[in-house]
Sequence to fold (674 residues):
Amino acid sequence: MSLKDFTDKMLPAIEGELQRIVARLDEPRTQTFHAMLSYHMGWSGEGSGSKASGKRIRPLLTLLTTAACGADWQPALPTAASIELIHNFSLVHDDIQDRSDLRRGRTTIWKKWGMPQAINVGDALFILAHLAHLEIGSCFPAETALQAARTIHEACLSLSSGQFLDISYEQRDDLTIEDYWPMIAGKTAALLSACTQVGALLGGAGEAAQVAYCNFGHYLGLAFQVHDDYLGIWGDSALTGKSTESDLVACKKSLPVLSGLGKKGPFAQRWSDGPIQAEEAAAVAEQLAKEGAKLYAQQQTDQMTDLALQSLRAAEPEGEAGEALFELAQVLLSRES
Amino acid sequence: MSLKDFTDKMLPAIEGELQRIVARLDEPRTQTFHAMLSYHMGWSGEGSGSKASGKRIRPLLTLLTTAACGADWQPALPTAASIELIHNFSLVHDDIQDRSDLRRGRTTIWKKWGMPQAINVGDALFILAHLAHLEIGSCFPAETALQAARTIHEACLSLSSGQFLDISYEQRDDLTIEDYWPMIAGKTAALLSACTQVGALLGGAGEAAQVAYCNFGHYLGLAFQVHDDYLGIWGDSALTGKSTESDLVACKKSLPVLSGLGKKGPFAQRWSDGPIQAEEAAAVAEQLAKEGAKLYAQQQTDQMTDLALQSLRAAEPEGEAGEALFELAQVLLSRES
Fold:
């Protein structure tokens, strides 16, 4: 079975599980509340469909890890879905915090239903996530369910701390590359690392393999984010069209930007002169590349990817699910948009 | 031992436990984040102190219930503190949603640090709450810890649904008294009911006693909220001064207001004519009383109080802690501000 064979089976199961969990709110008095969550998850409202739902990478990672430990992935479904809901809770709150109008090409929750209900939608996704995970108590020993809950909540705390750093960085102009890593370790890597760690725990992996899987998720998350930062400046959509999607225009202090600022050259000078306009994004991106930031970002992605793959090999994933995990990592880290 | 003897011992233990839990964020990079949570909890910043911390009624209820089941209350501390943190998570998000400037007489988190960080502070309090509860896995069987977690998360889901109703009610003018109860059952009673239910579970109470304690918390919550609604219109601070604290001026659709609207008399007429001004609050409150809403609110408080006390008696609370529980209920339901 290839990655595609696994996803063909797992994705519908994940989607069904997510819908079952969210249906808890499908009561007469909370119909509209249920509709808000359902809209955000991509199941209803204008523009609904698989593109609106996102790729469900996190639950896939969890289930593939469980399978690569030689176990049946089905009993891990509530926990896999739980992590996807946590990811979506963070997106809903993130969109309010960033005042983003669009998410996956659709109007965001706060834009559609107002900030107060949007905060509440995020909270409800988070609560439903934890309730879902607790269901595994019927398939796994209570001690295992508790340990998995601890791992997931620890990842959430890192996520929240990373979010704190990200927001506080907006107002700082003394940031260096050293400030970057703890922020993305929290915002991106913590939850991906929980996916693989919990997947391994539920798959019955030993202590050493659990640590290796945890490291795999961690480095995968770092590589994923650095690659995302790269695409945000030199990716197709960042360079073409009106370049409004460029991270440079959004003033995002991503890794390449912090690298460029550290050089104190023409890029740093231009950055300090005020917001970069869409029409100059391509030229500034070229200048930033000239100062070595493009190569640096590529090198960092490669290094984190190597560490991720080393960790995955150390985990000794079994059979076709193991091969599918390597394939998933390749897909995530070689994407061009 | 009287209630006071218990609170003299329990309150410092609760406060210490809360500070220990929140100290997880007391790391070099997240010092400011820790300061935000610490400020909200009433431990630091201008106006800090016991008044800024609130009364810690929820953890007290949990610990007293555990003790009234004949068990040691100390091992239940992480869970008691967890529920207080959940209460505070909801307050922080509530203040953003309501755009409230003050909480317990102090500037609210969102007013002080902005909406984005305030959302994050609420999220962190919520995450820390769940992490804290999971610690009881070392003192109680894992199965008990899981069951308590389920009860707490279920209460959070009710809290979130109640909050959805409350926000959605702001824009509705077709509300009746029937709409009131499910809203406060979620917003106020669910968490109080979780306090006593979980306290009983950790105290080793049997199934029947757990249900009785759960009902006690539920009706206590309803009685508490209806009494609060009463005080919001006819309490001292609502009637004296400039009456800016009157729920009538705040357009709050509380029980007496819904009762008055149902009468379709002079009060309903005045209500539909637009916002009530501070200087007319006392007169409108008198009109509302004339139409029977004051008596109705008192009767409802009495009825819910009776049901709460009946439930508590059915739980057969033991010893001095049991007596202290009755005393705590009396204190909560006879307060005048």
In short: The first strand of chain A starts at residue 102 and ends at 103. Chain A has a mean pLDDT of 95.
